[in-house]
Structure formats: C-alpha cells, structure tokens
Design goal:
321 residues, single chain, 43% helix, alpha/beta, 6-stranded parallel β-sheet, two-stranded parallel sheet, Rossmann fold
C-alpha cells in the first residue's frame, strides 16, 4: 500500500466513524485522517481536502439525540445525494465507501438461507427504512456508473452487537425478559462490533467495486442466543408482538423502526460473506455464535422476576431501561 493516504470520514461523530478514525490513526500507510459530521459542510469542504478516499459512516439506522426519526430520510437519502455531489467536484478522490445495511434484502419467509449481493432486487422493500436504503443504493449505483474511474463500494452490514455497543438490538437482548414471537425461532447473523469496524477499515484501505455483505460466518437461532445470554423468553402471539415492540420501541431507541425488528425477529436474515472474505480480504474474527458469546460475557443486565400478564411484563420492561 503506497504511503501518504488521505482519508476523509463523513459522519465522524457516529460510533462507527470514531472507531474507524482510531484504527486509521494507527496505520503507518495513512498520512492524514480527516473527519466531518455535517453534510452541507462536507459539500463545501471536500474539494479542498485533497482526500483520496471518502468513507461515509453517517447513514443512520435508528434515531439519535438531535436526529429524530422524522429526519432519518433527509439524513440518509438527501445527505447521501449531497455527499455524492461533493464527490463529483473533488478531483483528488479515487475511492468512495458507504456503510449501508443488509436490510436491503428484507426478511422473508421464502428467502434464502444466505442472500448474495446480487439478490437485493429479488424481494419487495416492505418498510420505510428498506425503501430509504434502496433509494440511496440506487443513487450510489448511478454515481458509480457515471464515474467509472472511481472505486465505489457499498458495505451492507448486518445488525451489530458487542461489549459496550449501545444500540437497540443490544438493549433488546439485555432486557430482563425478552419478548419473542410465539411459534417462530429466527436464524440471525449478529455482527460483532469489532468486525464491523474491521470491515470498514479493510474497505477504506483496499476497496473493491460494488456491494459487499458484512456479516459473520454461520448463523444462530434467537432461542440459542437467548440461552447463551441467559435471558428468559416471553413468547407472544404474532398479532400482539408488533404492538408490544411499538410499546418498547422508544425505550429501546428504535423509534418507528420497530417494524423492521418485528420482521427480523420473526423470519431472520442471513447473508453470504464470501466477497468480504475472498475479495475484500477481511476474515471476521467472530462467527455468529462467538459474537453472541462475547456479548453474553460482557452483559450485566438485571433479571426480572416473572409476573403474570403480558401487559404488566412489558410495562416493567419499558420502565426498567
């Protein structure tokens, strides 16, 4: 790898932007790491940075303080359009990497065990977040076709867990009693946070063209994951599970995106990570089971003594977080 790399991180204030910056700072092949967290400023400043690589980590999966759920479309879709417009005016740029989401594949009862990158258009986009991801991926694909001299890479991350990672899925798995859907035991791929950052680093330093699934090898059932984490289940009939998650959505930090979680926790989703391992050259440290084991080892959530009635349990769960 040639010396003197100048890498700009859009969304430096996010967890993933900060973690990537820390990794890049330790890399002797990187001359300078630049960061910016406001897309309009990026549009004005990017051409003057001399950056050869742009990594966009600012696509949000959930609401954050100061970034409510009603703003997610503008942040994710309009923000990406503004970023790509800035890229067009930056002659030094050689590589563009976006941290996207494997939600593009959806969660379908008839879906394959492991989606490959070519299957993104095989199933409908059923939720608002899926449609947003599909829209921004469409813009990015058009940009890549118009600028064939740039290496453009879209990373499709599976949901992440890990010690110290404060995210809705981690909060869900750490509930004293975990609501599940009666009669369903989905197969999941929960990506360890260390591997999520490791894949970002690999793509920043040696990106490939096109979409790349970022996921651990293998999968794990939700029931086995909860046994490893030592959390009891509260099976709820499917028609009641959506309202239950809606009640917990704000407490977990998922907001209106609880609908995506309902489908994930009913049907599951697996993606094939062959391109990640063989073409991008990143081998995940944690497989699907090991990622949950590591999360379980660090988890210190409180247990709740069971009480009768679904509603009373959910009320106590919501009040305990």
């Amino acid at each position: 790898m040639p010396a003197g790399r100048r890498i700009l991180i859009a969304g430096i204030g996010t967890h993933w932007g900060t973690e990537l910056a820390l990794r890049l700072e330790r890399d002797p092949d990187v001359e300078q790491v630049l960061g910016i967290d406001t897309t309009p400023l990026l549009a004005r400043l990017l051409p003057s940075t001399g950056a050869d690589t742009l990594v966009h980590t600012g696509i949000l999966w959930y609401p954050e303080p100061g970034k409510p759920q009603r703003a997610l479309h503008d942040i994710n879709v309009i923000g990406t359009l503004q970023l790509l417009a800035a890229c067009e005016r930056t002659p030094s740029l050689q590589r563009v990497v976006l941290r996207g989401s494997a939600a593009i594949y959806g969660c379908e009862p008839t879906g394959p065990s492991f989606f490959t990158e070519s299957m993104a258009s095989d199933y409908p986009l059923r939720t608002r977040f899926q449609r947003d991801i599909g829209e921004l991926e469409g813009y990015f694909a058009n940009f890549a076709r118009r600028h064939s001299g740039l290496t453009c890479c879209m990373l499709r991350h599976q949901p992440e867990i890990g010690p110290g990672l404060d995210a809705p899925l981690s909060r869900y798995l750490s509930l004293p009693v975990v609501p599940t859907q009666l009669g369903f035991d989905p197969r999941l791929q929960l990506l360890h946070a260390e591997d999520a950052t490791g894949a970002l680093l690999a793509a920043a330093m040696n990106p490939i063209r096109g979409a790349v699934n970022v996921a651990p090898s293998g999968s794990i059932s939700l029931s086995r994951a909860l046994r490893l984490i030592d959390r009891p289940q509260l099976p709820i009939p499917h028609p009641l599970f959506g309202p239950a998650m809606a009640r917990l959505g704000d407490r977990l930090g998922a907001g209106s995106l609880y609908g995506d979680a309902v489908r994930l926790l009913r049907y599951g989703r697996g993606v094939d990570n062959a391109r990640l391992r063989t073409e991008l050259g990143y081998e995940p440290r944690f497989d699907a089971v090991a990622a949950v084991r590591d999360f379980a080892a660090a988890d210190r959530g409180l247990r709740l003594v069971p009480v009768p009635g679904v509603g009373s349990v959910l009320d106590r769960l919501a009040g305990s977080r």
